[in-house]
Amino acid sequence: MNNYQLMRRTLAAVFLLSVFIAACSKSKDEPYPGSTDEIKASVSEKGGAVFSFYAKSSATVFSKTVHSSGDVSIIISGNHSSSQHVLLNLYNITTTGTYAMGGSGAQFVQGQYIIGDIGGGGASEGFLVQPPASTGTITITVLTDKTITGTFSMTCTGTTGAVQVNSGSFKGTFL
User: How far is CA 103 from the centre of its chain?
Assistant: First the structure.
């Protein structure tokens, strides 16, 4: 199995986990006790008006996995509502710094934005930063064994257009 296939499988598993956790929460606005996990961004879906994306506490998932091969996967996921979702997958990003979105190889970052009902069986539409094109950046300012903080921007494309995600920020504690 190559790195891209491993990344896709890991991405799918963690994304489903984030949907499950968000769906089981009492309220997207009710934080976990003491939690400061959050994801924020300015978003324009398919040329529409810009709105503020905000996911906090139980509507976020921050996961870090060290695979038996030594590869490291970090998933950052947030659900703004039942119909807007941001997902960032960092593969073998182990230090602070600025990284191009959509890279490929041993170290890369993939961004995804989903419109629609992903947890209830309804229709959904996915938009990706496709490798190897670089249509965004992520800057990691804090990365420890337990926490991650940073900023991001990306243009994700799909069959019906593009989604602009700008002035994004995140801070979270790994599960």
Answer: 15
Residues 6+ apart with CB under 8 A from 79: 18, 19, 22, 28, 55, 59, 60, 85
**pLDDT tens digit string along 139-148?**
999 999 999 9
Residues in Cβ contact with 107 at an 8 Å cutoff, skipping those fewer than 6 apart: 91, 92, 93, 99
Q: Cα separation of 149 and 126, whole Å?
A: 25
Tell me the C-alpha distance between 51 and 139, whole Å: 22
Coil vs helix vs strand at 8: helix
Contact 128/12 with Cβ under 8 angstroms? no
Tokens, residue 57: 């506490």
Quick: pLDDT tens for 46-68: 999 999 999 999 899 999 999 99
Exposure b/e, 49-77, CB count within 10 A at least 16 = b: eeeebbbbbbbbbbbbeeeeeebebbbbb
Which pLDDT band, with edges at 50, 70 and 90, does 33 fall under?
low
Reported pTM: 0.80
Using an 8 Å Cβ cutoff, are 93 and 140 in contact? yes
